[in-house]
Structure prediction request, 237 residues.
Amino acid sequence: QSVLTQPPSASGTPGQRVTISCSGSSSNIGSNYVYWYQQLPGTAPKLLIYRNNQRPSGVPDRFSGSKSGTSASLAISGLRSEDEADYYCAAWDDSLSVNYVFGTGTKVTVL
Amino acid sequence: EVQLVESGGGLVKPGGSLRLSCAASGFTFSNAWMSWVRQAPGKGLEWVGRIKSKTDGGTTDYAAPVKGRFTISRDDSKNTLYLQMNSLKTEDTAVYYCTTVDEYCSSTSCYAVDYWGQGTLVTVSS
Prediction:
């Protein structure tokens, strides 16, 4: 059971800006970095954002991450057809034992 | 080129066991902290557990649903990660990925790169 809550879906037309939220708690997002992953259909996930707002080399600057308190968000600006994918937030959780928790996932559709 | 190649998946009955392997190449495996992540059919991602490098103690951590049933180990001489799965349940049915991330920040810049295998399907069914 995911402890990070995301909207199940988001959509936009090409060129629009789409934002995905990720809600957690003080034991995960509130006290640790947030990571975002992109999973294209039929492929393994890929790291999109690390340490709240850092982009790995090769990730377009159309993708940006932010965090405030126990919530985080991923923004995709200038939406493109190839951005149609599932997106997951994640964070380490300090409650009880070491645990890396993923969000429920958001399916982004480019209309 | 970095490669992670999982193997060992298949069909197993509830209560059975299975061992997955992940063969690594293209990076210094012995220095890497390795993780297993799974994804049930049509569902989201779930962290299974991780193993630190031997330099960092070689300790393991597990998600609550698999703790006591699954064991992660590594053979640095073979550049291979393992996931021993015992007392399997139908809810363990998933594609299992091995993954690692190399992440570093200095005072002036940050760097991160992640690697994933292609995944291996484990089906637990009678």
User: Anything to note?
Assistant: The radius of gyration of chain A is 13 Å.
